[in-house]
Amino acid sequence: MAEPEETFYTEERWQNWLTRVEDEDLDPENEDSARLLLNLQDDAAIAVAKILTAYDDGDLEQETALDELAEIREIVLSEVEFDDEEKLMLIDGVQTSLVCVFYAAEEYVHAGPSEEGSVVDYVHAAADAEAADDVDAALGYLVQAGTRIIDGEELDMAVAEEIEYGLVSEWLNGLDSLQSALSDPEVVEEDDG
């Protein structure tokens, strides 16, 4: 049983990741650079997964879980100040991917998993909505897909390959991180240095 005052994520933790990004010579085509950005994203998704697990296990009340999620969202989605434009864009990509993760987690805690369609149905609906320039609807569909993933339905990333690059594909990338985090919440551990 987790002690009730467990800290799921901190400003300092996010800042440590940002410092690493700022200090590294980043090249998105380079595997190490790509891994650093993915680890940063996965780390936030793991914190979300831990809150969801604690909530599902009855260790967190609904309101506390929502407060914890809001706190992480505020830390991770706050504006980053880098002098390097390219790094700002890369961090922005990570933040964009995580937007859907936070909303899906909040929706799940608030209302439970969507009962309507499958993950794939929602992904296709989101892609159609994005193609019609209805970004809000696209996000809404993926949030519902996210609640299904949190509930245990598998997101097959092959479906992402059918989708044009854009917000939906970025959000899917975030949901993929969340899915990994839910199945193995200990993948990325920050150096205890």
From TrEMBL:
It holds the Pfam family DUF2150. It comes from the Archaea. This is DUF2150 family protein. It comes from Salinirubrum litoreum.
